[in-house]
Structures are given as structure tokens and as C-alpha cells.
Amino acid sequence: MPEGHTIHRLAGQIADAFGGGPVAVTSPQGRFAAGAAVVDGVRLHAAQAHGKHLFVEFAGRRWVHVHLGLYGKFDVVGGPAGPVRGEVRMRLATPAAHADLRGPTVCEVLGDEEKAAIHTRLGADPLRGDDPTAALERVGRSRTPVGVLLMDQTVLAGVGNVYRAEALFRAGVDPARPGRSVPAPVLAAIWDDLVKLMTTGVATGRIDTVRPEHEPDAMGRPPRVDDHGGEVYVYRRAGQPCLVCGTEVRAGTAAARNVFWCPRCQR
After folding, report:
1. How far apart are CA 37 and CA 87, in angstroms?
2. Long-range contacts from 220-229, C-beta under 8 angstroms, 24+ separation
3. For residue 227, what are the contacts with CB-CB under 8 A and spacing of at least 6?
4. DSSP letter at 222?
């Protein structure tokens, strides 16, 4: 599932490609035909993200709400739209650009009140300039493992499996440790680190979390090869040596999701 930086980056791409003018909105697949008809030919004002939720604003305070889920893709491409390929739930098109949405969990038209209800149930987003106080206090009171809490979208919105694993490694915190046992200054440092890492992810379109001294060139090692791209410390590195201490990286499960950590660096 795309993490929050991907959705914020997508919001920027949509705003840049379509913002300020009318947009043709269709549903070649047909499953979003009624919603597409509501905003077809309407001026697209802006796009924004909260966690893993995308909101595209059209004139008249109408919002197309998209959640990509596990399999969704939303590709923004320069140039006029060509023939439809595959199952396209929604297509945005102008003479200068087009974007095809495939396989989302959610694609719907909302009003302001319905949109506000979604924001209310989501936690603080490191990429929105949100105040993390309430979220971090919630973590600090909980007996739930901190590795589970960081993935709870009602606590921190937009943090996925990669950023969860990497932020905890960089903080030296075991993912199984209860939230209430992590000192408040450490939780605040994790939040600040997520803001920095995820902001970089928006800019580059990939997740990079290793410090300069652990980059491939600095260590004389080959670059990481993975569908997710980017250089990381523990994510999907189970059985490999930790880049810092050489201990074998471990993997397990937490709340039905894979979790990765170094047993020496994250005591």
C-alpha cells in the first residue's frame, strides 16, 4: 500500500497538471460513472492529502475522495489521453495532460461535511504541519506496542510499514516495546524524524532512510535492489547484516503486518 509521501506527491502532481481549469472526468470502467458525471467539465481547484487519503477539489465544494488501498494506481501523464488500457475507474483529461485511476479501494464524490468526517477520524499527518501533541500523548499512554501504534491511521496518518520500521530503527526503539514505556522526548524525536524522512520522500518519490555514512558508496556495498526503491536499514532486510552493527536483521508480525528490526540496535 502506498505510504503517505506517495499520496502527497500525487496531490501535487494533480494540482500542477489540472489545477485552475475545467477537466473532463470519465469512468471508462463504468463503476464511477455517476460520480464522474457530477464533476465532468468542472474547474479543478486543488488537490490535497491526509495520510493515505487523496482529495481532489472541484468547483462547488465537491471533492473526489480516493484511497488507493493495496492495489490502486493513479498515474499522471503529460500529453493528451490515448485509448484506454485496462480497467480505468476514473480518467481526468485536458488537452495537456491526463491521469488514469486503476483499482482503488475508494473513489467517490463527497461534500464538505463528509470530507470533514474523514479528517476527524484520521490522526496527525507528518506532512501536513499537524500538531502531534495529542497523537504522541496517546502513544505515551498506551500498552500497545509502539510498532503497532505508529501504523494506526487514527494515531499517525500516512505512516506505513517502511517508515514505521525505519523510524523505530533510527530511534533505537524495539517495535514490540509498549508505547507507554517510550520516553516522551524519544516519541517527539520519532515524529520529527518522520517529518524529515517523509518530506524527502515527497521530493524524490522514493523512501531513503540511511544516513550518509551508511550509503552504498560510503560503505563500499552494492545499492539495494527492491520494488520499493531507496536505501533502508531494516525493511525487507531480514537475515541480512545490520548496516550499523552487523547483527542479523529479524522479521516478525505485528497486527498482521510484517515488522523488521535489529535486535542489537533496537533493544
Report:
1. 18
2. 228/162
3. none
4. P
Residue in the block written with cell 475545467: 22
What phi and psi, each to the nearest 5 degrees, are found at residue 5?
A: -60, -35
Task: List phi, psi (to 5°) of 101.
Answer: -105, 125
- Report domain extents, the chain: 4-121, 133-261
Rounded distance between C-alpha atoms, residue 62 and residue 56, angstroms: 8
Q: Average the pLDDT over 145-160 and give the result.
A: 97
**Does 3.20.190.10 match the CATH number of domain 4-121?**
yes
Query: CA-to-CA distance for 111 and 152, rounded, in angstroms?
Result: 26
Q: How many CB atoms lie within 10 A of CB 177?
A: 15
**Residues labelled catalytic:** 2-3, 52, 257
Residue 36: φ, ψ to 5°: -60, -40
The whole-model pTM stands at 0.95
The answer to whether residues 36 and 26 touch, using CB atoms and an 8 Å cutoff, is yes
What is the C-alpha to C-alpha distance for residues 165 and 176, in angstroms, rounded to an integer? 11
Fold classification of 133-261 is Helicase, Ruva Protein; domain 3 (1.10.8)
45-103 pLDDT, tens digit per residue, is: 999 999 999 999 999 999 999 999 999 999 999 999 999 999 999 999 999 999 999 99
- Contact between 146 and 173 under an 8 Å Cβ cutoff? The reply is yes
